[in-house]
Specification:
Blueprint (H helix, E strand, L loop, with lengths): L1 E3 L4 E5 L2 E5 L4 E5 H11 L8 H8 L3 H13 L3 E3 L5 E2 L1 H20 L2 H7 L5 H16 L1 H9 L6 H14 L3 H10 L4 H5 L5 H16 L1 H11 L8 H14 L4 H16 L8 H7 L2 E2 H28 L3 H5 L15
Antiparallel strand pairs: 1-5, 2-3, 3-4, 6-7
Helix pairs in contact: 2-3, 4-12, 4-15, 4-16, 6-9, 6-16, 7-8, 7-11, 8-15, 9-14, 11-12, 11-16, 12-16, 13-14
Length: 333
Amino acid sequence: MLIRSPDVTFSTLGDSSILENSETRLTFTGASSRLCTAIWSQLDLRESVEEIAGQTGYSARSVSDFLAVLSEDHFALDTGCDALLDADAALALTRRCAAFWNRHVMTQPFPRLLFSGQATPSHVLGWGIEFHIFVKAARDYMARGASRIDGPTPALRGLWDHFVDEAFHDAIFREGLIGCGVPAGNIDNRIPLPSTTALLNHLWEAAEDGDLAYASVFALMQPLTEPPSEENVRARYAFLKEVYPDAAPLFDAFEQHDLIDASLEHASLTIEPLLRARGGVSRHEMTLITQTIQRTADCFDLFFAGIQSHYRNRLTIDYRQIPRIDAMLPAEA
């Protein structure tokens, strides 16, 4: 399957074709411009390089070379594969897909606003509240995913260990929110936004689907090939604590959590032992992996958009109505 990034726009200026997102601009002129125009219009409509070549009249080699240029900047993604892949090839494709969709999620409006230091105090605390709910839910969906009984013990051990590592990390974020002045009762009795519920439902359903679908959701959250250094983690949160001083305890919690993950080498893909245990990964299995990663990205888009839409002022931090069914029932005679 050929996919073009939903964050890239196409335009023309004179004899030039321009592809750009919020970070990068690619300009093609002359014959390259004509090639760009022809191929870009066919992406998302064709299954393979050969189909695009047949539709546009360009050679498969020319199409493939152009797509390689786009892939370097995550402008396009080719999830096509052979009928049977070895573990290394399957891992490489999984990482490409994870990096592509992770970049998409992190360049959406709310993540860009938040991590550039331009979010409002209500947005920052709202993000902390919904993220706490997301982390706390690990005790449900990760328990289901880790309880898989199919497969060799060495491969499944990684699922168990991952669950044990993450099961009670919500306490870290709870303390961070309390340090920012959010009452403990407000945190403990909070119901998630519908957009957060959508993400949690997806994670549960992936856990229900099987070990590959379950492990695939973490690929989106593990796009790095190696864990960040302690210096990088501390520098990132030093900036956020500087621009959001009132939320410093919350970012202390995020920093603590990220340092724990780095020490546990959570940049290693949770799915890797499962793929290696199979010996060969079928096209059907690879499609399940790539589609699950894409759906997970869609749900994270909703998660972030819901935070930006709801947490507009301090009142949304201090109060959220708990739905009660008795309010909808007729009064007793």
